[in-house]
Amino acid sequence: MTILVIAENTNSVLAPATLNTVAAAQKIGGDIHVLVAGQGVGAVAEAAAKIAGVAKVLVADNAAFAHQLPENVAPLVAELGKSYSHVLAAATSNGKNILPRVAAQLDVDQISEIVSVESPDTFKRPIYAGNAIATVQSSAALKVITVRATGFDAVAAEGGSAAIENVSAGGDAGKSAFVGEELAKSDRPELTAAKIVVSGGRGMQNGDNFKHLYTLADKLGAAVGASRAAVDAGFVPNDMQVGQTGKIVAPQLYIAVGISGAIQHLAGMKDSKVIVAINKDEEAPIFQVADYGLVADLFEAVPELEKLV
Amino acid sequence: MKVLVAVKRVVDYNVKVRVKPDNSGVDLANVKMSMNPFCEIAVEEAVRLKEKGVASEIVVVSIGPTQAQEQLRTALALGADRAILVECADELNSLAVAKLLKAVVDKEQPQLVILGKQAIDSDNNQTGQMLAALTGYAQGTFASKVEINSDKANVTREIDGGLQTVALNLPAIITTDLRLNEPRYASLPNIMKAKKKPLETLTPDALGVSTASTVKTVKVEAPAARGAGIKVKSVAELVEKLKTEAKVI
Description:
The structure holds two protein chains of two kinds. Chain A has eight helices and 16 strands. By secondary structure, chain A is α/β, with parallel strands linked by helices. In chain A, the strands form three sheets. Chain A has a seven-stranded parallel beta sheet, with helices on both faces. In chain A, strands 13-12-14-15-16 form a five-stranded parallel beta sheet. A three-stranded antiparallel beta sheet of chain A has the order 6-7-8. In chain A, strand 12 (196-200), helix 5 (210-220) and strand 13 (223-226) form a beta-alpha-beta unit. Chain B is of the alpha/beta class. Chain B has seven helices and 13 strands. Chain B has helices spanning 37-51, 69-78, 94-108, 127-135, 188-194, 204-207, 235-244; strands at 2-7, 9-11, 33-35, 57-64, 82-87, 112-116, 138-149, 152-159, 162-169, 172-176, 199-202, 215-221, 230-232. In chain B, the strands form two sheets. A nine-stranded mixed beta sheet of chain B has the order 9-8-7-10-6-1-4-5-11, with helices on both faces. In chain B, helix 2 packs across helix 5 and helix 3 packs across helix 4 (127-135). The model of chain B has no long low-confidence stretch (mean pLDDT 96). Classes of the chains: A alpha/beta, B alpha/beta. At the A-B interface, helix 3, helix 4, strand 5, strand 7 and strand 8 of A face helix 3, helix 4, strand 7, strand 8 and strand 9 of B. Strand 11 of chain A pairs antiparallel with strand 9 of chain B.
C-alpha cells in the first residue's frame, strides 16, 4: 500500500493540518508520499521532506496551481492518484474543494472528515453535526479521504529526510481564474491549531466588545473564535466561526463567552478537552457540555478573569 | 439563462437526532423533515438572479423518496418555475447523486447549477464538486457572493483565512455558504400557486444511472458523552480550578 497525501500549502508555507493528515496516513500503514502542488513551492517541498514518516515528496510547480484552483489541481491529483491505494487531504477549505472533484474523476466515492482509522478500509466519521459517529467501510481499490485535523495528533515536523521528485503534469484547464483574495490578518495563533480558544457569541452585543476577548486571548496565548450569531451580526469576520459550517476545533481549553450552545456550534468544539462557559442564562444549553460553568454577566466576568490569569 | 437548483430533504436542523438502539442508523421515524438549510440559500439565490433578470427559468431538482415532493413544492412556492423528482427510496452516496444530477444537467442544459455546500445529515460536502468533475464545468464552492456578467460568474468564496474571488466560465457549478443570502419565507398565496406548477418524476433507471456504491455504513453510534461538569460561583474559583484541577492554564 502506498498513500498519497496532498500537502496543504500557501506556496510559501506548509500548513500544519498536513502533519495531522500524515498522522492519519501512518495509522493506515504503508509508504507515504506527499504531493506539493503550487507555484514556487521549493520551501514547502523541503518542509514536507522533513516530516517524520514521509518516504517521498512529489513537487508539481506550475503557475496554474498557484491558487489551488480545483479545475487545475484535481486532474493532476487524479492522474497521480491512480497508482496509490489511498489519497488523503486535510478537511480544510482547499481539501474539501479539491478532493471530491478528484474522487468523481476517478469514479470512486469519497469519505469525508474521518476522525479515526479502524483499518486500512474502515474509518469513523461524524454525521448529523457530530450527533452520531458512523463507521464506514470502502471496498474501492482506491480510497479518497479527507481527514479532520483535530482527530489525529500531528506527526513531528522534523526528523524525516524524504527524496524530492519533480512531477511534470497538468496546467491551466482554462475554466476558471483567480481574481483576488482578502485574508484576515491576525497575530494570534491559528484557530484550528490553538491550544486555547476564547469564543464570543451574540451575548457580546457588538464587535467593539470583542476587545475584551482579544485582551484575554493575548494574555492566554489563545485564538479567538465566534459563534454564527456573532458572525451574522457582523461583530467579527466569518473565518472566525466555530461550528458545523465553520471551523472544527479541539483545543485543550475552550472558553465560550455569551454563547448559548446551539447544536451547530457544539459540532465545532465539543471535542475540546476542557470547556468553560460564561453565560448569564443558567438554562443555556452550553452548560450541558461545559466542564466549568459560570453564571455571570460576561462584562464583569471577562475583565476579572483577564486580571486573574 | 436557465438555472438548475438541487435541493435535499433532510431532518430539520433543530432536531436533536437519536441513534437507533441496533446501531443501524439514526431514528428518522416521526421526525420533522425540512429542506436542507444550504439548499434554501441556493433556491433564494436563483430566485434573486431571476428577479434581477439574469435567470429566465429556475428548475429545481431533488433526489430522494416520494416525500421529497414536499421540499420541491416549497422551492416552487419560493419562486422556482418547475420541479423534477428523481425518485429513489434508498439513501444514496454523493457520487451516485452527482451522477443522477449529471444526467439531469445533460437533459436540461442549464447555464448555472446551484447546490448547497453540504447537507446537514451526511455532512459530506461533496456533491457539487463531484457534479463539476462529471460535467467538466468550473466550480465555485462555499460562495458568499455571486455576480454574473455575460459569459462569466464571479464568485466570492469563504476560505479558511478569509475570502477569495474566482472567475468561472459558464456553464458552472456553485455551492452556497451560509452568508450568501437570507432565504425568504413562502407566502400563503405562493404556496397555493406552487401546487399547480409542473413536477416531473423520473427514476435512476430512466436516466440510465447506476447508483451502486463502494462505501457502506457498518454502524452508527452515539458520540462519547462528556462527563457532567460543575458550576463555579466566582471567577476566582474558575481560575483556581483551571490551574489546579484541569491544569490547562
